[in-house]
């Protein structure tokens, strides 16, 4: 029965051991192989296992190594079990004293385990988890060991405990013999072990040695009981150096073996887990050397000890596994990722140090910090380096960029698309006139009676080929449109008046176009004018690396007259030619994606947006998202105001159905479902909030700024601007921002199209901002919240009124200006000395009045001898507020007593005057 059981247990053990480590597993296997030989040995431990063990002992002859045959068995079993110390333990226990399964014995065994370890090494297999399980008590050892091991071992300790337990398990067998004693001993040994391992350990060797010692002690102490004896022997011997023998010995003591084995295993196998931390590996070897007997050496192999005579090698998971683990732990700690700013407490956590330790370190450098102090990355890195911890900056992921990221499309599915063109140039050089001319020459003339809608973009057809013009003013096409890094246009037509040449805004336009990597076609306008000088324009263009084709360059220059329409056709043809060269293509068979060109809140239609489809085809009914807005397209109008059902690449359309008004320049994407569109928008909203919070946080955490605010050097006026159309938002925003001066910074923290909403008020409340509404009103909820939160909402219909109001607000915020104002004169006519007060000037008020707390200048014979505060003003013996002309009074001046009769006192006050 027992034998069979043992084999079963062995299997179980293997399973158990597996987690402990491959080594243990292999050991188990080996042990399993060896087991038959060792069968003779019985483990004392688990009564349950004991039976099984018995069986094994018979079969296992190897145990013989050890003096007791049983020991070998145990070892074998253990080996088989590898990880299953319990079984082994049980076996020995059975032999020694089956009864003793008590935890105490386990502890003893644990103690002995160290010795056993040496001896046990061979026996490693004994680990039999049994002891561990049983040995809750043994744990003391484990715990001790843990303590001994110190924190580093913690993780390992967890494992170790098992090792210890196993060995204990072996001891557990003993317990049967004399539970109490063993128990007590176990404790002792446990304590010892703990101490020792801690001391020397690190390595398994520590464990062993301690185990060995403990084993001895235990044994000794146990004395009377057989189990004890055996234990002592085992312990002692193993300790001395018999690995194999001890194994055999352990067989006797059962417990002893178990312990040893367990110990060994624990240290080795289990240790594999735990030890790594402790450095067991190293220690194990040394201990082995110390303990090794001749026999041991014989049996020893790099992999472990040979089992008994068979010469088979039992693998000892011991050292090998442990080291790598320890190394890993250290590595983990050595590199940390830090954000831009981090608090001391967070840094300490990452460094696995105590915050107070860091604070002390900084304090030693003369820098005062608290655990909540935020320090920049550089400082944190410097600090971490002192602990030999490397830092790397946290990589910020642009969630929105990730969201908008697109995979490369299959070129095969792409078809050519119309070019998207924008017109740029200096003021009055004829941009509008050119666009009008183009419309008239192409679109309007063909679409007889058709009314071209002003939707910010339109298409014209030249020789049946469409061209899309973005009708956005100036370089906004590049700035706003490029907000999300999207390329809005393919070709830029630079309008330069032939009679005016290159002007500042022309240069600006050139730079924007170049930065956007857009092809430039120069339209030299107003050639109908007598003062027109085309060649001069071409010459000037050369300064900006735009060399006309007829001058040997590559820049297409088209002389035109927006007034007479001369050259317009040629310009359009040139645009098409350039488009051909660029081979503009897009895939129309996919979800649409493009740019919001313009957007506004229409009283009848709600939010409407002019979008330029860049890829795919947009359909009515599509779910779209644009920035923080989303919705299902209810209706779609083309540039002629006609309802359309779909829009292909490069087509501008006005869409209705969005939940709110998106920002111009925002990318819109068509989604497969409403939920996707909503999620997309939600991400934008949360990202926006995060950014806002980050900005606020960053500001508040800047000591510099705080210092300046404290010193009154910087003040800020946060504003939220809401208007009915995007154009107004921009206008109000810019006008207000211009009001910033050296002392007060006007900061528009949020601006958008639409009514003043609840979230606007919430934001204003949180950031102490004023809401400026231009042609919009707050909704009912927003209004009531604003009243409750005392948020100031200012509504305007004319921009200048808003500006004027803000200007006033600013002047109120400016540091008051004080001016000196003379309030009266007095003459010193008598002097009195008063102890503790000083000299009292008995004076007569000549004119005006003298007021308490005023300032005074004293002149003597035309020469000023004092300018400072009036410390006290008395009428007779009473303090008074003021003394009018014609009355006498007593004056005492702040820290000035050098007065003489006849001195003239001029009283004055500093009064606040309104700023001009
Ligand atoms: N003679 C002549 N006058 C032109 C021509 N093109 C434009 N103009 C005049 O130049 C003036 C400015 O023209 P706009 O088209 O408004 O110029 P713009 O560049 O759009 O000006 P802003 O919108 O203020 O930037 C108008 O009075 C036009 O009539 C042209 O080809 N010949």
Automatic annotation (TrEMBL):
From start to end residue, where is composition biased (Gly residues)?
A: 203-214
- Report the domain of life of the source organism: Bacteria
Region of interest: G-domain:
419-567
Q: Where is the composition biased (Low complexity)?
A: 25-34, 61-72, 119-140
Keyword Lipid metabolism assigned to the entry: answer is no
Give start-end positions of Basic and acidic residues composition bias. Answer: 1-14, 290-306
Predominant localisation class: cytoplasm
GO function terms (MF aspect) = GTP binding; GTPase activity; translation initiation factor activity
What Gene3D superfamilies does the record tag this protein with?
P-loop containing nucleotide triphosphate hydrolases, Translation factors, Translation initiation factor IF- 2, domain 3
Region (Disordered) location: 1-317
UniProt entry keywords in alphabetical sequence = Cytoplasm, GTP-binding, Initiation factor, Nucleotide-binding, Protein biosynthesis
Binding-site list for GTP: 425-432, 471-475, 525-528
Give the subcellular location: Cytoplasm
**Database matches in HAMAP family:** IF_2_B (MF_00100_B)
Q: Which family does it belong to?
A: Belongs to the TRAFAC class translation factor GTPase superfamily. Classic translation factor GTPase family. IF-2 subfamily.
- What is this protein's function? One of the essential components for the initiation of protein synthesis. Protects formylmethionyl-tRNA from spontaneous hydrolysis and promotes its binding to the 30S ribosomal subunits. Also involved in the hydrolysis of GTP during the formation of the 70S ribosomal complex.
For this entry, the protein name equals Translation initiation factor IF-2
- Source lineage: Bacteria, Bacillati, Bacillota, Clostridia, Lachnospirales
Gene that produces this protein = infB
